[in-house]
Structure formats: C-alpha cells, structure tokens
Amino acid sequence: MTDTLLKAQKKQDELTGIIATSEEIKDQRPLFHFATPGGWCNDPNGFSEFAGKIHLFYQYHPYSTQWGPMHWGHVTSGDFLKWQLEPVALAPDCEADFKGCFSGTAIEYEGKHLLAYTGVSENEEGEVQNQCLAFGDGKNYKKVSSQPVITARDIPFDYIHAHFRDPKIWKKDGKIYMICGLKQKDGKGCLVMFESADAKKWTYKGVIDSSRDGLSTMWECPDISVVNGKELLIFSPQEMKENYQLGFHDGNNSIYVSGKLDYEKCIFTRERRPENNYTAALVDYGIDFYAPESLQLSDGRLIMTAWMQAWESYITPENYIWSGMMTLPRELSLKNGRLYQKPVRELESWKSDARAGEIAGGKNECIFKKARRHFELDLKSQSASGQINLSLAGGTEKVMLKINLDDKSISFDRSESLVAGKIPYRKAKIRTEENAGGENSQTGGKFKFQIICDTCSLEVFINDGIMTFTNIFFMSDVLSDLVIENGTNQSLTYDFWKIQEKN
Ligand code: FRU
Fold first, then answer.
1. Which of the residues are catalytic?
2. 468 CB within 6 A, ligand 1
3. Which is the closest atom of ligand 1 to the Cα of 70?
4. Total number of domains constituting the chain
5. Are 428 and 247 in contact (CB under 8 A)?
6. Which of 36, 40, 42, 283 to mutate to test the pocket of ligand 1 (most atoms within 8 A of CB)?
7. Which CATH number belongs to the domain containing residue 286 in this structure?
8. Sign of the Cα pseudo-torsion (232, 235, 241, 242, in order)
9. Residues 317 and 400 in one domain
10. Which of the residues 80, 114, 118, 287 could staple to 165 if both were Cys, CB 3.0 to 4.6 A apart?
11. What is the pLDDT of residue 301?
12. Quick one: 131 and 232 in the same domain?
C-alpha cells in the first residue's frame, strides 16, 4: 500500500469514527441512500456485481467537502439500500494518475475484479487524461504495472488531451470493449471505442457517436447496456443550453439514446423518438442527477444509480463534514424507445405502516407532524386542472413540490430551505405515455406520482417511471410536517408508507 492510499484510509477511518459517535451527524445523513462517509463524493464508479456482492465505488476526496485530487471510495451491499464501507480502493499515487483517479467502471474478469479508470497526469503540454486498470479481490486493488494502458498514441486523430476520460468496460463474445468520452479539436464531444482480447493490449475501433448538432461539448461518463432487446446508451454532456420543451437545462445534462451498436462498423445507430423525431432525451428532469452508471445484474435486471447533486449547484451546509450522495438505484426498461425507471424492488421490504387516504377537492391534509422524512407517498389524481402542493416544513424552513395540472408541469422549490444554492427551483413538463416529449399533450388527468423521500432528497417517479424528477435539500431540523394541498376540484387518493430498515 502506498503512503497516499494509507493516508486516505486513515482519513476515512477518522471520519467514520466521528460519524459513529455523533448523533447530530447521523441525523443529517440519508437512511437508505449511499452517502460519502465524510469528505466529498461525486460520480458513481465501478457499479458491479462481484463475488456475490454489489460493489459501488465513487469519486472521493476524503480531505474536505469540496472536490479535490480524486480517489476511488468503495462500498458493498446486498440490497442496494444498506452500504458497507470498504477500504479506499484507489489513490492518485503513480506517475499515470498522480493528479487524480477519475471515473470509470468495473467487471469480473477471469475471477478478478477489474477496474478501469482515467489516470490524470501532466506532461509538457499540460494536463493529460489516459486510461488505466487495476485488479482486485473485492477488497484490495492493485494497479497494473504498465500504466496507462491507452493514451493519445492509440488514437489515430488529434484531440484535446485534457479531455479523454471515463472508460465504460463490458464483455462480449470473449472480448472486452471500452468506450470513453473525448473532446474533439472542434470542441465537440464524442465516444471512442476500443477492443481487447486479454485486458492488456487495446485496439482503437472508432467513434461510435458524437455531438453532431453541436448542442453540447465534452461527453462525460458514457454507459452502454442491453435492455428489452435494444442497446441503451447514456452519457452526460457538458455545456448544454436550456430547452423547456425537450427538458434540457443549462450546463451538464444526462442524456439517453436507444438503438443498436454495430461492432463491425463501430457505429451506434440511434432510434428516433416517436413523439418528436429527436433521438435524445433526458434521463432525469430534476436538479440533482448526474453521471449515471448501470449494472447488468445476474438476475437479469438492469440497475442504474447516479450522483445526486449538480455541478452547478453546491448546497452542502457549511458545518457538514460530508458532501455527496447517490440516487436510489433504479430498475430500467425500454418501451417504444422510452426509458422507464422504477425504484429498486428491494425497497419494498423496507416499507412499513401502510396507510391510504383520500383528500377531497379544495382540501388540505397533514400526512404527518414532526416526523422523520423517510417515506414513500404515491399520489393519484383524476383531475385535469388545478394544482397539488406538497410541503415539507420544519421550523422556519420549507421545501415544496408543486404539480400544476393546468400547464402540466412539476416543480421543486428549495428557496426556503437551509441552503438554496444557485439553482433553488426547477420546473419541468410532465411526460406521459402518450407524449414522452411533453409537447402538444392531449392527455387529461390520471397522473401518478411515486414520491420517495429520505432525510435530504425527494425523488419522484411519474406515470410508472416514464419521467423521474430528483432533487436534494437540507433542513436544520431532522423532523418535519408533511402537508398535501389538493387545489383541484376532484378528490386525490394516496398511499403512504414509512421507510425503515427491518431487523
Ligand atoms: C463527471 C466528471 C467526470 C470525471 C469526474 C472527476 O462528473 O467530471 O468526467 O471523471 O467527474 O471527478
């Protein structure tokens, strides 16, 4: 173990020691979402199944609640909800990655756990990013001796060497494939593919897809998987421009396209979306969702998780020693080219105290008073007009979720919470089966909202998961009131459960 890794491990031990003895910090933290043990975390990495466990690594800077030289933190789980801390897996401690071990993925390979990540280093031209590998047993990882394994020398065209990162690896027909994001000389993003027969020698295959319309720059964190007989390609482009109809927002977005990857020609052919003839759609319409990674589980499910935060809006309270959480892992499916997301089914066994109710048009109901914010609330509305408001309030602070059935929008407002940040509010058009594009909606009422709340996050799965809306917030008080206002003229039905770990 190098000194750099040992130092990071000591820091992690120190942080977990503090958390274990502080009720105040325990109360701040989510109950059933992964959160960093302390320090900073961003993207999920190496989300994989190995030796009977689910493994999640993450971009980790243990020394402060701000981004810094990247390590890979590591946790394991049996149910995607409760995470067991493991030793820090990677530290920036060799020539190929001394400026950081950036994002990547993991697979099982010949009985070992193979991690692929981006090594950030420096040469005479400045910062450079190259691809690196490490092998492990599920606890300890050793970088290969011939790092980096892929560099600019392997790519037959010139590009911006500071932007070549985030390898996604997968196995197919006895080979390993890798795609990475890369910034072309013209500033546009693209995805390059490599192939290897032995995880040692890698051959460049080509550009599978690129930002043809120039609606974005670098494409970060590519992910590819097969679901319902189609290939699902997800990536996170930078510097996009807002488009309310399509759902895109300014800055970093996470996008999916479905279609087919031709391994021979090395081209991803995208399907056109039935509702608007576009090929790309947003994965999640909330403020706090980025860099998703998927895991093809041995039981056949495709599960995805993402960093539950936005680069554009840092709202971690000043006195916190931790910053960064992941979304609830979600089961993915594709129907008519549209992505559906459902909370991982393991959540069912954490649900208890079921109750159902009906709120008449024009009435309010307090669902709970001064309780912990660990719940699922499913709302069904038959109305085609009016507004439904949900508020979580404690002391002088409040967060609101507003469903407007007149203009068919959902919005989240954290402007009255502990820290509003640069993006205190987001409004998005509600997507439906008939119209996942959100334009010219003919749909009346009959909206369904599955709202899952943990200490500091609200994730909404709309209309069976054709749209998700993920947002985080912080409140000084661990207890809140939950009130629903039914501002429509028809009754609203709900189901409610507490979420807690069962013994
Ligand atoms: C995405 C990202 C990746 C990079 C990592 C660095 O959030 O910018 O492209 O590998 O974060 O922490």
1. 43
2. no
3. 12
4. 2
5. yes
6. 42
7. 2.115.10.20
8. positive
9. no
10. 118
11. 98
12. yes
| Cis status, amide bond into 148, omega within 30 of 0 | yes
Q: Tell me the pLDDT band of 302, cut-offs 50, 70 and 90.
A: very high
How far, in Å, is the centroid of ligand 1 from the Cα of 351? 34
- Tell me if 218 CB under 6 Å of ligand 1: no
SS (H, E, C) 135-183: EECCCCEEECCCCCCECHHHCCCCEEEEEEEEEEEEEECCEEEEEEEEE
User: Ligand 1 atom 8: the closest Cα is on which residue?
Assistant: 220
Query: Final residue of a domain: which of 286, 310, 343?
Result: 343
Among residues 328, 343, 358, the one where a domain terminates is 343
Q: Assess whether 103 and 187 both reside in one domain.
A: yes
- The reply to whether 446 and 368 lie within a common domain is yes
Same domain, 255 and 375: no
pLDDT at 260 over 60: yes
Q: Are residues 220 and 337 in the same domain?
A: yes
DSSP code, position 497 = E
CATH of residue 399: 2.60.120.560
Q: How many angstroms is it from 5 CA to the middle of ligand 1? A: 20
Q: What is the pLDDT of residue 437?
A: 44
Q: 404 C-alpha to center of ligand 1: Å?
A: 35
CA of 221, closest atom in ligand 1: 9
* pLDDT single digits (tens) 278-292: 889 999 999 999 999
Q: What H or E segment, with its residue span, contains residue 397?
A: strand 397-404
- In the reported structure, the alpha carbon of residue 42 is separated from the centroid of ligand 1 by a whole-number distance in angstroms of 8
Establish whether residue 71 lines the binding site of ligand 1, counting it when its CB lies within 6 angstroms of any ligand atom. Answer: no
Domain with 108, as residue range(s), is 3-343
Q: Is the CB of 486 under 6 A from ligand 1?
A: no
- pLDDT(439) > 60: no
pLDDT digits (tens, 9 = 90+) for 81-123: 999 999 999 999 999 999 999 999 999 999 999 999 999 999 9
